[in-house]
User: Fold these one by one.
Assistant:
Number 1:
Amino acid sequence: MNRARRAVSACAAALLVSGAASVATTQPVAAASHSSGFTKSETITRTELVNGKKQVVDKRTVTLHVDDTTDLEGRQEIGVSWSGAHPTGGIVADQNSIDAQQEEYPFVLLECRGTPSRVTPQTCWTQDWSERYQDSLQTPYPPYRLDAYNTKAEDAQVYGAPKKLPKACAYLPAPTQHWVPFVAANGHVYDGGPAGCAGQPPESQSVGGSALPSNETFGVTGTNGKGTASFDVWTSAENASLGCTQLVACSLVAVPVMGISCAAPKAASASDVAACEAKGAFSPGQLAPNPPQGRDDLAVSGSLWWSASNWRNRITVPLSFAVPSNACDVVNSSNDVDVYGSELLIQATDQWAPHFCLNHKLFKFTHVQTGEPEAVNLLTTGGAEAAFVSDPPAHGYGKPVANAPVALSGFAIGYAIDGANGQPYTDLRLTPLLLAKLLTESYPADLPVQEEDPALANNPLNITLDPEFQQLNPGITHGVDASEAASALLALSSDSDVITALTTYINDDPTARAWLDGTPDQWGMVVNPAYKGIKLPVDKWPLLSDFEPTEYYQSDRNDCLKNSPVPFLPLVAAPLARLEEISEALQFSVAQSTTTCSQIDGTTVGEKLVAAGRQTAGYRFMIGITSIADADRYQLQTAALQTSADHFVAPSDDSLQAAAKLLTPDKAGGFWDVPYATFESSKSAADAYPGTMVVYASIPTKGLPAQDAHDYATLLRYLATTGQQPGRGVGQLPAGYLPLTKANGLSDLAGYTYAAAADVAAQNGKVPSLTGNAAPHARTGGSHHAGHAGGHTSPSPAGDGSSATAVPPAVVPPASGSTTTEPQPAPVIAGPPAVLASIGRAVRRSIGDGAAIVAIVILLAVAGGSAAPAIYLLGRRRGRW
């Protein structure tokens, strides 16, 4: 039997699957307000035809649970778990790789276009032709042709082939063929075939390269019948061919592979029947050889997920999607205003954007992502009208500027670490000293550095060999294979207020400060001399090590470094330009250390240093700095940071609220200070998260054009009120942010922002006092579990295009310091469901499902004209790793 396969390299794995083994399952930082789950049980069977009678050879009751299915965003990870499935054998290292289809009895997870009643294998995304095509030279009756549940057409020797083969497929030698074409959202049919000769979707060409790893998952079921996976949801922004949007229905399809139910025709040989009835070449939990191709029993492998026997056992989960932030890209407006700065606000501006942009009477407001220090400079010099910052300049901007609080969130230390048992580690604890060690290139990372650099000779090779780390984090392998990734904190290469906050936290710890100044830790580890005495805080972390290990810089070890030597440890650190790039690397466990020499033909032509790449499940070790909101959206594990000798605090609503109580107004600077030193010295601060940060909209109160001033003021009013309502809906505040409300002790901050809006609108050169501002009565609860509050609507007094605006139960008068009458905040309104559904159907009929973004714009713009409030655009510009 000859089966078409595509070989890809994979690291050897040794997953332990006594229970569930798969991709890391994680807990969100803070739960969204209306998260919805899905649970369903199905009894599934495998049968054989014995003496003309159907006989059940395997029967199982499989229960599937998905933790979130509504208002999904692109790249959002959802937790999937199951029980009762057949244990998996022939396990490969990466359950998202092409090789994973060779696993026996995998629990296959696919994202498919269509509702549960309409999905077909032809609308399910897979990354490679080999998962949709099979052929045979040896026999006309391979297992998939003996399937008892085949239609008459599927019993044919050639099934699904294009009517006219393209020239690229002219070499086809196999008389027996089974094709499963992929139908794209725009209706284009990609037939695939061997080596993709009849065409593949464009997204499949770059999977595993510069694009995202595939979200298709061949999940591993443990010997107890249970398994888990984190499934990465794609929208049309990540995969246009799949095309999932608010208007294009998609589903998560789980296919618990049980094997082919065989019904052998008389013409089939005994060996054909035996191959169809095969029970597996691997024992449950057994690892696959490398490479795994052709070692498995095809009848029970993931390669036949589409077979009638397996497809009939599927469990289908309907998914719904949030309005995408890029819905505003095609909207024209009479006025555009920008705010430059903070990455901490990306998840919030993503949700605020559609609420603001789609009312044709209003304007676009773009969040231009830059480092906060750069944004401060632009605002100071007049290159920008406004900035999102967390560390406003103490000396001011040289003009009257209100630092209006719009969010309370912070940085997180995210990680992807597997414990010694091969399972995701979920209780990482870090101290300021450990973070200082990771940042200062003080772990040698590789033996040549440790052996040749006398300054680091006695330091642990990586953090897993550091006694301090071992004491705090039992259950992690001492001396992991991913030594380079375990020697550095994946950090930012650009300037950022996040780096200022992190290095302030480190600097305020006496033990870390003493170590940076040259005092060895209690086990004798010393700081890399290049960093000894470094002054902190800084807004950009420097890479100072200049050591080059001569033994490693040889043609037989690393030809790239021999020919173009550079300092080694900065290559290990390999910082990235954006927090979201770090989040993405952690989400997919893509190690960034650029120490691997890539040679195309074994010569120096085209050789270059490349990143280490995706780590093997069961052996992952990565730690990086990210935002709390990113960690929540992408379900990243986050470390608990030390606040006192034996106390560690992770980011959560409660720990952010505890930190909020410590904020003190800095009247000279015009902002609220986060007293990081207090976090470690005060017992009252023991439960406060030390990564807490306030994000301000810094906007001048003098010198702005009148229209821009009006627009910025309208934005501030919204962000101080309705924009603080927690949830995943349009215009709401996503998880990872603590609402600026009285219940959270933040009414002064919201009141200041509301008061600042008046001075911004008036351009009177005034800046409100940090105290004494009446907080607006926002329709929001005190946590991310809060539901929708009541209230009523009335005509907007602002004349800003809103047809209705929320009036709180008790109308609050203008805040002190205001010089104009302020409109009340606008509610979150979606429009009548019947109207929206009707518009959606009309849009699909007129332009097709593939035009997702345009359809959303039309739908919401029409709704906005009749029932929606004022809408602005807060988009963003960003890069990818």
Number 2:
Amino acid sequence: MRSLLFPAAFAILAGVASARAADFEQDVKPLLTRSCYACHNSALKNADLNLMGFETEAAVLADPKTWEKVVEKTRTRQMPPAPFPPLADDELHTITGWIEAAFARQDAQAAPDPGRVTARRLNRVEYDNTVRDLLGVSLRPALDFPQDDSGYGFDNNGDVLSLSPALMERYVTAAERVARAALFGATAPKPSLVKLEAVRARVEQSTSVPAEYDTTGLTMRNAVHAAFVAPVTGEYLVRAILGGERPAASEPVEVGFFVDDQPIGILALDPTGLGSFSVDRQDFSGKTRELRVRLAAGEHRLSGTIVRIFEGLPPSYGGPNPSKIPQPPPREFKPRPNATPEQIAKQREFFEKRQKEIAPANDARVTRLEVLGPYEAVTGPTAASRSKVYGRVPRSAHTTQAARQILTPLARRAYRRPVSAADVDPLVELVRRARARGDRFEDGLALALQAILVSPDFLFRTERGRPDPAGGPGRVLTDYELASRLSYFLWVSMPDDALLDVAAQGRLSQPAVLEAQVARMLKDEKATALVEAFAGQWLQFRGLEAVAPDRERFPDFDSGLRYAMRRETELLFLNLLREDRSLLDLVDARYTFVNERLAKHYGIAGVKGPEFRKVALEDGRRGGVMTHASVLTVSSYATRTSPVLRGKWILENMLNAPPPDPPAGVPRLDEEKVGAEASLRDQLEAHRSQPSCRACHEKMDPLGFSLENYDAIGSWRAADGKWPIDASGTLPDGRRFEGALGLSKVLSQDREAFARAVTSKLMTFALGRGLERYDRRAVEQVAERVEAKDYRFSALVLEIVKSLPFQKRRDERPVAKDERVVTR
């Protein structure tokens, strides 16, 4: 149970600090006798549990799993069950506080334990990055692999990364594809049509022509954005399907195409017309415009827009100056099927309200994108692939010795360890046999590369370690094993040659050398992989792609806004990484990164165009990732906000004190009454008045209510329907706060708890396993040292790398008498 990992952070929320002086015999045992022994005794053993068998504190400490369950069941008020009288708050705090304090004392006295790490296979991101760095290919073959499972919040957890027969088949297929792409170039598929998914909302039309606006159209509602993975480098035809209307007397509409937010050509400013196309029609429904563009292999963001949408209007529209625009007929109200009369009345009221706020305009727009291709695909291996495969061996050398010279360094890099003749000889034999049957030398190399790519030494990261020369606990990782841990932590990929060379010299474990390598790696562009692989999962904005807010209630939400939301949080974390800023910026940064689309969503003036830029937050409404629209959206329901989900998000990610799962049978809120008969806050107040709900909700709800000024897609609001927003809250320890910035101030004051939370999250990712109670000491030490270094991100990374769990593993095998300390 993870709440036992950091009882100090949990105590801030639970108010149990005073219970820690309780005594088992005098205080705890009488409560167990009265409330637990009737069912959990030697005769009944309900749930196969006999609590009467734990006569002493030592007996309790010998069975942590049982007593962690006791904490969970009592804290969530599942025990004692009816008709037994419930525990009073002070009694509950006495039991749970004593248990947590007793195990904390035990942990402090226990011998250090570096923990056990399961042999980990490469997850999908690691696989793609590794074949890219090993062979210089950018195919991203892991897109065809089954989705990776997650454990403790991350998809690099060795305990859940299983290897199914289906995945093994995909490995074999990918190995052949990758090997041949490296040696002969990617095989170009036949040209085909790909219809891109581009979620868009109903187009909003202003009642006046703005004097200033984004003339590229990228951040406006007339554009669509979609991701496309080019299988090979080549020519592709990007097609925009249009919709809507345009006044007949206006100037021709121009359609703009963008790749990765960069214009193709100069668009409307290009006198040749490259990148923009004139359309002199009033009704554009189903019309298309297309542009041929060269794309490099890999993922791209494609956009289609209407350029300078408000320019060239006829004089009756007032040109670029504010004036009224004729509106099309209003939409017809259609009640939802099987709705009751009361529900229909509410739906009509909501519909008419939205009709007044947003006109159902029919401006010219791009509705979706299609891609045809590839054409004129690049053939042959790239220079990067040739260099990665052949190194300094001439491509004309086709001897057995040349094969050995090529495959030895490749195997060393792929297996991330020294290789012997026993590793390389079978690979060279594959080349020899291919040549003997008349195949080309390169075909033999392709077979050898395939063998490397399906080898367990490539697919799995295994660590054996060596005895600690200082006689400490556990086994010290070898320099090569340390290099792999370091590279998959910071780059989510294999070690580069510089790191492997230092490991080969046996110097990586030297503190000064290790620190220098960490500094070098953090400055490398590959360290940006932490944004997606770590921050995207920790802060959960990676899940934004699966979120679908209700389009009737939130018509502002579209693919462009979704992208801007995610990019804001990515850039904040990237700024933290690149500028080595304080971790506390995640809590209370008074700056953020926006483009015009997101700035309008936030009500920030003066931001024009699709480019993201750093802006100061001065209106007192936002600060830190808790107020980012990405976080606020993924922690909401499709139709409304959820203080419970948002409070749970804060507990899990900012304090590392996740609440337990709700007990079975807990009643849900009546969705029909939410916001109608009472405010959401009042309904949740009534909900948590129930004993089975109060224990968890008294921690989650105040945190979640602090974010109620933001709707389900992160827009600021002062009221929820007819109910004014009350964003105040009181923690169980009595501290009051007002709104998101008030909560940020509280968390900033408890910076030590936040530092422990971030440390535990990043250490979980770095180790590829969940943290256990015995890891608490290491986390506390890292957090204390980071505090002394002003909470700098680089300090956190370095202290984790220097920690006992990162540099060692538990010794789980007998040691041979003649075992020697080997570093390379």
